[in-house]
Amino acid sequence: MTRRFAVLAALALVCAGVELVAGRGMSPGAVWDVLGGGGDATERHILLQLRLPRALVALGAGACLAVAGLVLQSALRNPLAGPEVTGVTPGAVLGAVTATALGLAGWDSPLAVVLAACAGGCAGALLLWLLAGRGGGDPARTAVHGVLVSAVLGGLTAMVLLVEPGELGSVVQWLVGTTEGRVWEHWHLLWPWALAWGVAAWLLAGPLTLLRCGDDIALAAGLSAHRARTLALGCAVALTAGAVAAVGALGFVGLLVPHLAVAVFGADLRRSLPGAALTGAVVVCGADAVAQLSSRLLALTLDADRLTLPVGALTACLGAGLLLVVVRRAPGRTF
């Protein structure tokens, strides 16, 4: 198990290193010069003020989404539960966009964006809870109602666009998910938020493990299932809100990465929760590096210097394809 953690940590460092040299504006040789203490002022600014915080934000956001997804799947005992299909992510996007349109938040006030995203995520989760009822642990029922909730919240986001069309750029960034333009301010806001709620999720590992076994077993062990599930859902909403406020809605990360983490680290959440954090960090940072490399290749091929492939588009396409493969090979997959 220690070896698996070490391998994942090494992969995270490799992905971060690739991302530092993958972007446009600097050659890999110039990157090495800056890392060695050389380079001119412009090169140092690009690497140290733009690329490095972007890589750190990608690592942190991936960890948040993966842990949030594993917490949701464990609390609801639903392999289809994730921030994307439980109303949390679209609600967080709606909260952030609405607060920006009203002038209550913006890129110059990232803390207000986090708070607005958290409020929206709570509203989305509450709406799903009201629609699905207390029996919402059924995978098919939760998935159907999750689609409905996402559609409703997406429609409300579109209505905000009609009222404030000038916010189109911000809305697209949050809807697709991107790490473009992330600076140290985003990282300084994300890492304490992610650390605090990540520790809270790890402290809930014992109750969550009991909830995975069923409410009857949890009650027999003296655990208040309702209270534990409420705390877990609040933790998942906070982690999702932090990630959404930092990079937008990255599709399928919180849905599929938890399954990979459980397969690698086992069902004991004391190991699989930190394992999910590392796996999510590797997936998002690696996807962002691939997106930057693809953007460079597309720009050279199409002669379009401003062409940029957002990481959210890449994770959505790859995640959807992987989900189809998993469903076809294991249609009866449950916990």
Automatic annotation (TrEMBL):
Transmembrane spans: 55-73, 85-105, 111-131, 143-163, 190-211, 231-257, 307-327
A molecular-function term among this protein's GO annotations: transmembrane transporter activity
Membrane association type: Multi-pass membrane protein
Protein name stated in the entry: Iron ABC transporter permease
Family label: Belongs to the binding-protein-dependent transport system permease family. FecCD subfamily.
Organism of provenance: Streptomyces cinereoruber
Record keywords: Cell membrane, Membrane, Transmembrane, Transmembrane helix, Transport
Entry-linked InterPro entries: ABC_BtuC-like, ABC_transptr_permease_BtuC
Protein origin, superkingdom: Bacteria
GO biological process: siderophore-iron import into cell
Signal peptide: none
Localization per Swiss-Prot or TrEMBL: Cell membrane
Acetylation is among the record's keywords: no
GO CC field: plasma membrane
